[in-house]
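PROTOCOL LOG
Step 1. Enter all chains and additional molecules of the complex.
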Amino acid sequence: MCGIVAYIGNQQAAPIIIKGLKRLEYRGYDSTGVSLFNGSELYTIKTKGKVSELELKLEDQNSIDAQVGLGHTRWATHGIPNDKNAHPQASNSSNLVLVHNGIIENYASLKEELIQRGYTFTSDTDTEVLVNLIEDIQKKEKVKLGKAVQIALTQVIGAYAIVVFDRRKPNELIAARLGSPLAIGVGENEFFVASDATPFIEYTKNVIYLEEEHLAIIRSNRDIAIRKIKTDKVIKPYVEELQMSLENIQKGGYEHFMLKEIFEQPQAIRDTLRGRLLSNEGKITLSSLRDHENKFLKAKRILIVACGTSWHAGLVAEYLIEKFTRIPVEVEYASEFRYRDPIIFQDDIIIAISQSGETADTLAAIKIAKERGAFVYGVCNVVGSSISRMTDTGCYTHAGPEIGVASTKAFTTQITVFSLLALHLGMLKGSLSRSEYQQHLAELESLPDKVSEILKQETLIKEVASSFNDTNNCIYLGRGYNFPVALEGALKLKEISYIHAEGYPAAEMKHGPIALIDEQMPVVVIATKKGHYDKVVSNIQEIKSRKGRIIAVVSEGDVRVKELADYCIEVPESLECFTPILTTIPLQLLSYYIAVQRGCNVDQPRNLAKSVTVE
Ligand code: F6R
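Step 2. Run joint prediction.
Step 3. Record the structure below.
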């Protein structure tokens, strides 16, 4: 959480930083600020609220003639969102300013020591402690800024991505990271530092992804020096070419990123399948498995770790992998896994799923698994992200940038990856027949078109939404492969419309939740033909007889559920194992339209951030 943008070069820094912060608002948007140095004065402007409010405060962005500066958009951890807790945070002398993404866990004891040494604090943040610690080290040790930052970071416990500026060294920015990402854009006589590459995409295609525990001294004259924080070892910068375009990160005529991303799903799924599902040759090829097939074939168990929507994709993956490979799978919340001293055997395989590739809990779970000798496979969307670099191998979803805070195309493409993985391994293991395999490949290939068909029902779904947008509660039910879709549907609704929603396996309803059903309670039921259809129809009857209002997602041509439900949304028929990719689409649109009709900010829901880099 929190977004960082810094610039040093020969262009006006303010417009670059402001535009960049807007692109990073998915990481947090409760307060924001910028520091700009015009050669003699260091200006810091901060405000509670979004970057648009900072823009208003700045009025004319070119009025401060600065070619160096740093900015921040915040997701509060220490201290409420207000002007004084916003970043950049300045040191007591006002010489240093610092922006920070992460948490300094031992800030209280460090602060106590600094107070005893005469420092005063105006904010409640851990960041103000860090900037003063650096200042204190500068004074005590008489070292240069880069060295002072390095020493300070060895005293810090926690996670950070930081950029530091010293008004007495105006040609230099110091950047460092541990646990939170930082990308450095390398231009002609200019550098950009940001939480991801989107703020500098139109200026340069050359990027250095700063590695864990690395510190970079960046000078405006094309000079960058990287070293390891703990060992001081000098590292040769590795410049990569950025695989992203400006178009990818714009709304392209849609009202919200979430809607754009919902509609991108047919293409996103095609991109996930491209080069992997070779229909002409009737096979799947996964380069990430090439040297590791044996590990998978010998595995006694697969443990999946993830959070939120990615965890829901993990549940679908459990069904897929167990069905096609007969390897037992367990799915764990990464946040629980990391703290419960998990049992990990040498021949276990850990699969980490993450759209952003930066989720702190998932990263920590991987660390534990690796420390215990497990082989870790990653399923990530963001290329070059921390998780993708920390895992032994893995498969990108290639969904393209997902900017709306509510995850949509990441989910369907993650399931697509697991469909490929499970079928491929099943074929290698001989646990599914060649004809079954071919049938599944053909169906997999047809899914993008089927998703397009569902999207054509947008108007109907919008109408359904208008009948339910005043509800306070909602229940989602599904069975088998569609139980995780019920969880995901409920999560989508609660996170963007603030309606309380719960997902349940349909058959669990009678063990408690059925007490909630009355004429006020909407129940969304996934009732496709394949997979426990008759049982789900019985569940619908139970809801109907208690006067619940039913919205059903059904297979094309359904008759029985249509007689019972208040509203039905049809999805094309498919093989049972692929239905989650289809049934989740109407649920995404339903929550989107309910949220829009309630006047909620769907792309930036309250209290949330896209990339959860704190635990
Ligand atoms: C929900 C959502 C979150 C994320 C979760 C994990 O719409 O976006 O629940 O799924 O924070 O994030 P990643 O997949 O980036 O690890």
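Step 4. Note key features.
The mean pLDDT is 93.
The pocket of fructose -6-phosphate is lined by residues 307-310, 354-356, 359, 362, 406-407, 491, 495, 612 (CB under 6 Å).
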